[in-house]
Write a sequence for this structure.
């Protein structure tokens, strides 16, 4: 017999859907993915999730997982490797094993794009971040660097000026690709300065970020630039590789209509995998609940 509901992904969206699904006696099965708990497990302190003044990211995700398990959610801590949404019941493979489901919630999330520097990864959560909204508060009266040249970089830089004493935007070209209004907003801010034709080639610091090494692409000059925070604003990549040819995608994100419904009836999407705009744990959890309620209604119609 196929499972009533399989949830692919175990971040806030997937686990919120699992909690509601288990309480609705849908006996959900969660395929956790390569990083059970999602991006929050790679985060240090979380201070913007309701109910917790401050909690470590991995601890928060463990508590939410325990909540889902308490109501009967089952877990497979592995990666979904292939799907077939063109036949019914739907099929999801974990390695060589094929699982069947009457309904599916896709909650595989998205990953920030990084520079690919060894010290950048080593200091992630210790001054290196890809989310100003999440972590800006921790940099009060400090100097931070934002890497990027699009609207997101301008928005992140402006947001960070609420806390940081100085924000330096580092962009590899001579001009930003951001919209004019976003550029003007950033360039008029007295706390923001810009280094054009530059790239970060290393992150400095032993236990926390103490600076970045910047190379000028025109002169070849390299300088050590002191700062306490490095924010990457060069985009996100949704984890949708296995859904190519199975679901309609929009710039890599799962395209939804009517809030959570994908191009395939009975398959729903929640969280960062379908949200290029908000990318917050609490909004992901909310869309997870919405997807579950839509899936529950769909399943009721099959009976």
């Amino acid at each position: 017999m196929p499972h009533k509901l399989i949830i692919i992904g175990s971040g806030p969206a997937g686990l919120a859907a699992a909690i509601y699904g288990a309480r609705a006696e849908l006996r959900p099965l969660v395929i956790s993915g390569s990083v059970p708990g999602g991006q929050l497990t790679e985060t240090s302190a979380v201070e913007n999730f309701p109910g917790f003044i401050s909690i470590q990211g991995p601890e928060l995700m463990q508590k939410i997982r325990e909540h889902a398990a308490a109501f009967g959610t089952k877990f497979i801590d592995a990666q979904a490797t292939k799907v077939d949404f063109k036949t019914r019941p739907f099929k999801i493979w974990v390695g060589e094993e094929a699982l069947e489901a009457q309904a599916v919630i896709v909650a595989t999330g998205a990953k920030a794009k990084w520079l690919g520097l060894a010290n950048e990864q080593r200091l992630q959560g210790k001054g290196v971040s890809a989310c100003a909204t999440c972590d800006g508060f921790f940099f009060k009266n400090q100097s931070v660097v934002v890497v990027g040249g699009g609207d997101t970089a301008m928005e992140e830089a402006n947001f960070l000026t609420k806390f940081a004493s100085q924000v330096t935007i580092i962009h590899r070209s001579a001009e930003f690709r951001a919209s004019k209004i976003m550029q003007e907003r950033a360039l008029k801010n007295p706390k923001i300065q810009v280094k054009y034709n530059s790239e970060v080639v290393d992150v400095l610091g032993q236990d926390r970020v103490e600076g970045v090494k910047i190379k000028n692409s025109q002169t070849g000059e390299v300088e050590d630039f002191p700062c306490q925070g490095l924010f990457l604003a060069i985009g996100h990549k949704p984890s949708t590789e296995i859904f190519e040819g199975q679901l309609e995608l929009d710039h890599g994100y799962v395209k939804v209509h009517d809030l959570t419904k994908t191009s395939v009836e009975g398959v729903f999407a929640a969280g960062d995998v379908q949200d290029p705009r908000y990318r917050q744990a609490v909004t992901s959890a909310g869309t997870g609940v919405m997807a579950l309620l839509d899936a529950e209604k769909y399943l009721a119609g099959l009976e």
